[in-house]
Amino acid sequence: MQQTADVTEELARRVVSAARRALDVELTPEQALIQASPRDGVDYQGNLAMSLGKRLGRPPREVAGLIAGALELDGIADPPEVAGPGFLNFVLRRDWLETRTAALLGDPRLGVPETASPRRIALDYSSPNVAKEMHVGHLRTSVIGDALARLLRFAGHEVLPHNHLGDWGTPFGMLIEHLLDVSSEHRAIADLDAFYREARRKFDGDEAFATRSRERVVLLQSGDEETLGIWRELIAESTRHFNEVYALLGISLTDKDIYGESFYNPYLAAVVEDLEKAGLTELSDGAVCVFPEGFRNREGDRLPLIVRKRDGGYGYAATDLATVRYWTAERGATDLLYVVGAPQAQHFAMVFAVCRAAGWLTGNAEHIGFGTVLGADGKTMRTRAGDTVKLADLLTEAVAHAAAVVAERSELDAAEQAEVARAVGIGAVKYADLSGDRERDYVFAWDRMLATEGNTSVYLQYAHARTESILRKAGGVPDGTEIMLEAAAERALALKLLRFGEALKAATSAYAPHKLCTYLYETAVAFSQFYTECPVLKAPSPELRASRLRLTTLTSHTLALGLSLLGIEAPERL
Ligand code: ARG
């Protein structure tokens, strides 16, 4: 199927050339300021006349009128009306909408072209810490990061995911010693958190153990083979656990995406050397520091990024400097994205500033921050006992809650219900995480995320299952592609379906999956309206029945593809 520009682009291109003809000005398509209109009875509006009028020193309404008069719309829309202070109001033509919608049929990409300028994007997400269980804080980075990976790939970019495991540093001395103790008792690590706590307890309370642990850190850092072997066991044990959570969550990270903190060890000396050569370092209290410009604390003192500690060791900041240097210089990444909680915003801003000063970073680097998951009390979510909530427990609970919701309305047998409950429960947790502006905190509430009405994945999954059920009952969609948009609800649904590409673009360019969620929800609502007002199987004519089945098919594909780009399953039956 032919892939075409979206409606906004089509209109923008024509407005640009009309402005050139009528006013002799050169605009970019973005400056045409075309957007979907919130007004009833208007599909798109062009908002350029206000700023253009100012620039040209002419009344905006006059500018709008001249552009409108010069527009060549080629049957896309009727000549626009000039409204208010100078809006251009576009109403798309029915025949054009019908042809455009028909062109989506059979196109697996639903009319969305791949980017003409693919980028190579290094994407840091999930990044839990070894020998600790993944907790609810890792939910967001995993879910948002994975959705971004899917969206960026679909857009045609190359995505290099990397999982920055916390697998290095002083705690590993005590963890290794503890592992040696327990394996001599032939105990496996059943519970990573308990294992960590126990190691910590011994470290704090047992002087001999603490000494052994400190010696072990030295051995580890000097590359002692035996120690490295035990360390690897610990990593393997942890990644086994992480992979279980990823499988449950449907996160696409694998072992080959692991680039833990330890991976960057061989690069750290060169990082310091480069910075020293560039004259960026200062010695402060025995530590090698860089003071990037523009970062000060409340007292007005310059803030340091500690590159090498006083004892010669390297910390979190040095490692992140190395990640930038590695992914740009060694892997040719054009963009660096770090999906990490909002509290680390300053850390990344400083890391990027230093890397720009050092010349390692010329392209785009972004910290994709996100807010906190809150409990019902509005504080960071915790278990009743006050512990952090383990992700694995949370997901098991989600599936149990979903099973109850599904059982209420499902016609499926028990085995099928169990499978569907997994898709619904996991989907609900992911969607609740994705559907709000990522920078904001949100309250984790089962009843809200599993509500069958409103902007939830369950609602979308039911809408999708309904489309599939209609198509099954119809016993196939007649050949042909004719679409007839007679009723207002048919037209509204078709217009939504044509906006899939716009929604994806908005979600992808702002790293904002919630924009896709909103779009999918609006599409499901438009479908529900259509389904209520326009009989499909009992349509008044065979042509209309075929057309409505085609709209149903397109809705089904749009919801399924949209959900899959968020990492959420769309079962055919619920
Ligand atoms: N391991 C860290 C944590 O659990 C997150 C690491 C994020 N990535 C990075 N390159 N710093 O908080």
TrEMBL record:
The keyword Cytoplasm belongs to this UniProt entry's keyword annotation: yes
Motif ('HIGH' region): 128-138
Keyword Protein biosynthesis in annotation: yes
Localization in the cell: Cytoplasm
Residue span(s) of domain DALR anticodon binding: 460-574
EC number(s) recorded for this UniProt protein: 6.1.1.19
Catalytic activity: tRNA(Arg) + L-arginine + ATP = L-arginyl-tRNA(Arg) + AMP + diphosphate
Main location: cytoplasm
Transmembrane residue ranges: none
Keywords: Aminoacyl-tRNA synthetase, ATP-binding, Cytoplasm, Ligase, Nucleotide-binding, Protein biosynthesis
Highest rank taxon of the organism: Bacteria
Residues in Arginyl tRNA synthetase N-terminal domain copies: 9-92
GO terms assigned for molecular function: arginine-tRNA ligase activity
Family named by the database record: Belongs to the class-I aminoacyl-tRNA synthetase family.
Subunit description: Monomer.
The protein's name: Arginine--tRNA ligase
Annotated source species: Amycolatopsis nalaikhensis
